[in-house]
Amino acid sequence: MSEPLVLGIESSCDETGVGIVRGTELLANAVSSSMEEHVRFGGVVPEVASRAHLEAMVPTLEQAYCDSGVHVKDVDAIAVTCGPGLTGALLVGVAAAKALALAYDKPLYGVNHLVGHVAVDQLEHGRYDERTAALLVSGGHTSLLLVDDIVTDVQLLGETIDDAAGEAFDKVARVLGLPYPGGPHIDRAAREGDPKAISFPRGLTTGRDMEKHRFDFSFSGLKSAVVRHVQHEERMGRSFAVADVAASFQDAVCDVLTAKTIDACVEHGVKRLVLGGGVAANRRLREYAEERAKKAGVELRVPPPVLCTDNGAMIAALGSEVVRRGLEPSRLDLAVDSSMPVSQVLAA
Ligand code: KG4
Ligand code: ZN
Questions:
Q1: Ligand 1 atom closest to the CA of 180, numbered from 1
Q2: What digits encode the pLDDT tens for the residues 111-164?
Q3: Is the CB of 319 within 6 Å of ligand 1?
Q4: Per-residue pLDDT tens for 71-103?
Q5: 3-state class of 22 per DSSP?
């Protein structure tokens, strides 16, 4: 069989994405984001995101047809994110995918968003051919995965036990008076700062915590430490140095993320690491990842930023792998699962 031509729909958070791929070849990646509508709330508001998906879905589909010259009537299958994510947001994408599958008589595959973040790298660097680790860091997730087969063998090694990494960046940015989403602003401010200026805590890295949460992450203690530092400086009548706080906070997050990830690679005999999610754009994270991966003899792969953030191409890329393996499509009464486990790549 030639490489499957698949249309992918993503709507788990604030990006409405429609992607079209043929095997590992990217044909279209249309994305509409409702980010602007969430700015005044300082975070994604689920109801607002759902409504925005409803409005953006058809125009985004049309954009993807237009960019690729491929219409849904031409594809072999439709893939859609059915979890994890915001329930109301997921429902919009799944309902759209079901409507298309019924109208054009196409098989429908409900797939896992997190695994899509891993699959997308195939569009950039080719198919996975060896055991791979993936660190997925965004506003909604912080997960460390072990991938032996992108469809049949994905394991969760660790995840955040409180805030997601991007969420921590966004919350700390707010404390520092920087706009939402805070990640890029902290990244920029940190360039002028000293990452060693303030010694912020590294969550779950010592003693008992390491025993129980070897590859898990925690950022809420760090966030509180930043708040305490800022309040202390203000009480002392001093203006705190935003650049130093940003750099020191960022260093703490990226140090822990990469140290645990590389430890996991070494422990599990992994020679390839993929990064995904919006926080993968962070300069310090990339520096640490490059330096530490190199030292451990691990190949580092980072997809381009448009493929790191949420998009439909990642869902199409994963869908295409599922189709290639000849797996049964999902049923048309497919439900969404806001906390779909990573070990479940395809919904029944
Ligand atoms: O993957 P993404 O676009 O969307 C979802 O979270 O679904 O990730 C957005 C997150 C935000 O929390 C944003 O602050 C963070 O990624 N982010 C960054 C950077 N660029 C985006 N965090 C740190 N450094 C960056 N350069
Ligand atoms: Zn995501």
A1: 14
A2: 999 999 999 999 999 999 999 999 999 999 999 999 999 999 999 999 999 999
A3: no
A4: 999 999 999 999 999 999 999 999 999 999 999
A5: strand
Distance from residue 4's CA to the centre of ligand 1 (Å): 31
Residue-range domain boundaries for the chain: 5-120+311-324, 130-303
Q: Give CA–CA dist 151/149, Å, rounded.
A: 5
Q: Tell me which H or E stretch contains 148.
A: strand 142-149
CA-nearest of 165, 129, 169 to 149 is 129
With a 6 A CB cut-off, is 255 part of the ligand 1 pocket?
A: no
CATH topology of domain 5-120+311-324: Nucleotidyltransferase; domain 5 (3.30.420)
* Model confidence pTM above 0.90: yes
164 alpha carbon, closest ligand: 1
The CATH number of domain 130-303, selected from 3.30.70.1450, 2.30.30.240, 3.30.420.40, 3.30.1050.10? 3.30.420.40
Report residue 192 as tokens: 């002028």
